[in-house]
Amino acid sequence: MATSFANGGQLSASNAEVWNSWRSVHKGVKWLFKKDAPLLINPKPSIEKYRWLAQFLTHIKNRENNTRKTCEMAIEAHALYKQIALEEGIEFDKVEKGILHIYRSEKELEFARDTNRLYKEAGLNRWEVGKDEILSIEPALKNSIDTVVGGFYNEQDFTGDIHKFCVELSKVLETKYNVKFKQKTIKNYDIYQFLETGPVVVCAGAGSRAIAKRVGDDLPIYPVKGYSITINDPGPAPWVSLLDDEAKIVTARLGEGRLRVAGTAELNGYNTDIIQDRIRPLKEWTERLFPEVNMESITPWAGLRPMTPNMMPIVTRSTRNLGVWYNTGHGHLGWTLSAYTAREIASLIGKH
Question: Coil, strand, or helix at residue 301?
């Protein structure tokens, strides 16, 4: 509810590129004082925030390896999600039309070509497309195609409603596998009361760091806020999922009745306030690219991504308490990666 309830909806191996690059740093500095910029950093002093940013810089050298690994995990997760949904009969407004990335400058397109090399090495079949092919893939872009110089497209990625998936999965777990859910039982981040019955897996999003502190572990997780709008009854909206690289905005069609538009990143501590300066760019972008979309019914949302400095999830055992395990820190790719990391943490626990 706090991290992924109304996220971008994409299961996207094609968005696996980690953010650690000097290109990202330069953009962040340029956007520093723009309230509606894709990346916003609150300059208010914070040891936790500045420590995280310093660690972020040290991982720039690992960009290529981490991007390849993330893409590989995402591809495996795709297969797992489809297997789970098929075997358990879970409906989650899945739309399998791939993901189309669009670029508005030759410089950005050239960088995308280099990133695509990493994706291909990881096993993702993603190819470059020109304006004519972009329009054939998603005709709804007809009003804005003149601002686009090119793009990349793949058919492996897909979209779906993570909240609906989790609700339906929990019903299956309760009725078919006798899983018991106990909500609102953790007080003051204390999990020691549960260790008596067996291993505990901490997968609490941005709250994982506070729980880990009680155990004695220091997880390098910082809450990076993202925003979305859900457009109800959108009418002639795009069906193919989009990623506008310049604006850092994604779209996902969730069945017939909803269009999700999400994006932006904000380093502002544990703050989930919905700020209109951050919501407005999502609305304006949608109206500019898709003027025929019905914008009468819109639901805004903000959530906190549990981001690590190297953009990689934490899937490991506690160094302080052998009964505690961590499956957290998925950043902006929680929906994309979590099926893979769930399998990995289960495997690790099984070996012990």
Answer: strand
Which residue, 143, 284, 206, 153, is CA-closest to 3?
A: 206
CATH number of this structure's domain 10-350: 3.30.9.10
Amino acid letter for position 16 = A
Burial class (CB in 10 A: 0-12, 13-18, 19+), 334: buried
Which residues contact residue 280 at a Cβ distance below 8 angstroms, ignoring those fewer than 6 apart? Answer: 36
pTM over 0.90: yes
Task: Give CA–CA dist 228/16, Å, rounded.
Answer: 20
List beta partners, residue 266.
Answer: 40, 225
CB 241 within 8 A of CB 98: yes
Give the residue among 28, 47, 52, 46 at the shortest CA–CA distance from 38: 28
Pairing state of beta strands 222-232 and 258-267?
A: antiparallel
Longest dimension (CA), the chain: 63
Question: How does pLDDT run along the chain (352 residues), one tens digit per residue?
Answer: 889 999 999 999 999 999 999 989 988 888 877 777 888 888 888 899 999 999 999 999 999 999 999 999 999 999 999 999 999 999 999 999 999 999 999 999 999 999 999 999 999 999 999 999 999 999 999 999 999 999 999 999 999 999 999 999 999 999 999 999 998 888 888 888 888 888 999 999 999 999 999 999 999 999 999 999 999 999 999 999 999 998 999 999 999 999 999 998 999 899 889 988 899 999 999 999 999 999 999 999 999 999 999 999 999 999 999 999 999 999 999 999 999 999 999 999 999 8
263 vs 224: CA distance, rounded Å: 11
For helices 106-122 and 63-88, the axis angle rounded to 10 degrees is 60
How far is Cα 149 from Cα 104, in angstroms, rounded to an integer? Answer: 5
> Do the bridges between strand 324-328 and strand 314-317 make them parallel or antiparallel, or are there none, so unpaired?
antiparallel
